[in-house]
Amino acid sequence: MQINLVKSISMLSVIAITAAACSSNASEEKKVQANSSAVPALPVDVKVVAAANVSQSEVAAGSIIANRLVDISAELPKKISTVLFKDGSYVKAGQVLYKLNDSDIKARIQQLDAELNLALLNENRLSELLKTESVRKEEYDIAFARLQTLQAQKELLLLELSKTVIKAPFSGIIGISKVSAGSFVTPGAPLVSLVEQQVLKIQFSISEKYLPVVKPGNKIYFTTELNSQTATAVVISTDASLDPLSRNLTVLAQFTNAGHIYKPGMSAKVSFSTSTKNEQGIMLPTEALIPGSDGYSVFVVKNGVAKLTPVKIGNRNENEALVKSGLQSGDSVMISNTLRAADGAPVAIVSHK
């Protein structure tokens, strides 16, 4: 009897303890539910990301420069006798621009021609006499050398005469003449500027991180304040080295200036692709990125909870960034209310972008 009584008391004690424990667990669960219901879910917009071929571009400030520009100058100290162009007009390659006074050169050539005729007659006479050994070989050699000297002098005078005619080295737009007929000019002094307009160049700088994607042969696109229509140019060259201060590389692109719409000196807004061919990646709006000491993170929404996820980004512009790692296709990434969210916080998806 006593043993049965002890067993009964023990069983009652176990039942009482179990009931108390159950009551305690139920109370804790209610507290958790109460706390959870006390924090409202943050309304957010999300973007369901997917890997695809990416096409990113970057914008840079550039300047339109002349493909060829030259200051026309004289090679002789002479007076200008004639100006043969209209300021600001289009001139063709080889067209005469200025005519210098050449009267003194022509007079020297006439004088030299007379001496040449006499020297030629003397050389012919001595040549015939030499055949009969009527003169010494030294006499003929002196006459022949005299003839060659005069011929060389005439060639120099003819070359000097040609320099009195100043021609356009290439086709283009001529500027405003700095001199007029009667002006005395000195060698090397600029007379007028000539700019090739059929072909122009755009000069701009890129950051060193874009070196792999901006190469000769690549296309760039540009607009100007004068013309908002997008035009195309082709990269023709890059500088040999980067600027040691800015770490930027100077790039030159060339384009055909049909209709002479553009002029050297204009500013240009240049756009160039920063993506490689068939590059795959996940494009994400920049507002989804959260900067940190170790890089960038994003909030990925899973089962109604925001989870802070580190990501590695590549090229980015004002609107989008290329995510190289950290995300998978199908992830829902928060693109709104990121500053109000916290890791593990409940969220409610309002819309999918």
CATH architecture of the domain at 59-67 and 196-273: Beta Barrel
Q: What value does the average pLDDT take?
A: 87
Largest sheet: 6 strands, antiparallel
Please estimate the helix content.
25-40%
Q: What gap, in angstroms, lies between the N and C termini?
A: 77 Å
List strands and helices in order, with pairings:
Elements: H1 2-38, E1 42-48, E2 52-53, E3 57-66, E4 69-73, E5 78-83, E6 90-91, E7 96-100, H2 103-131, H3 137-162, E8 165-167, E9 172-174, E10 184-185, E11 190-195, E12 199-207, E13 219-223, E14 231-238, E15 248-256, E16 267-273, E17 280-285, E18 290-292, E19 295-302, E20 305-316, E21 320-325, E22 332-334, E23 347-352
Helix pairs in contact: 2-3
What does this 3D model show about the protein?
Strands 2-17-21-20-19-18 form a 6-stranded antiparallel beta sheet, with no helix packed on it. A 6-stranded antiparallel β-barrel has the order 3-12-15-14-13-16. Strands 4-11-9-6 form a 4-stranded antiparallel beta sheet, with no helix packed on it. The protein has helices at 2-38, 103-131, 137-162, and strands spanning 42-48, 52-53, 57-66, 69-73, 78-83, 90-91, 96-100, 165-167, 172-174, 184-185, 190-195, 199-207, 219-223, 231-238, 248-256, 267-273, 280-285, 290-292, 295-302, 305-316, 320-325, 332-334, 347-352. The protein has 353 residues and is α+β, with helices and mostly antiparallel strands. 26% of the residues lie in helices and 38% in strands. Helix 2 runs antiparallel to helix 3. Mean pLDDT is 87; it is low at 1-10 and 12-37.
Write a brief structural summary.
This protein has 353 residues and is α+β, with helices and mostly antiparallel strands. It has helices spanning 2-38, 103-131, 137-162; strands at residues 42-48, 52-53, 57-66, 69-73, 78-83, 90-91, 96-100, 165-167, 172-174, 184-185, 190-195, 199-207, 219-223, 231-238, 248-256, 267-273, 280-285, 290-292, 295-302, 305-316, 320-325, 332-334, 347-352.
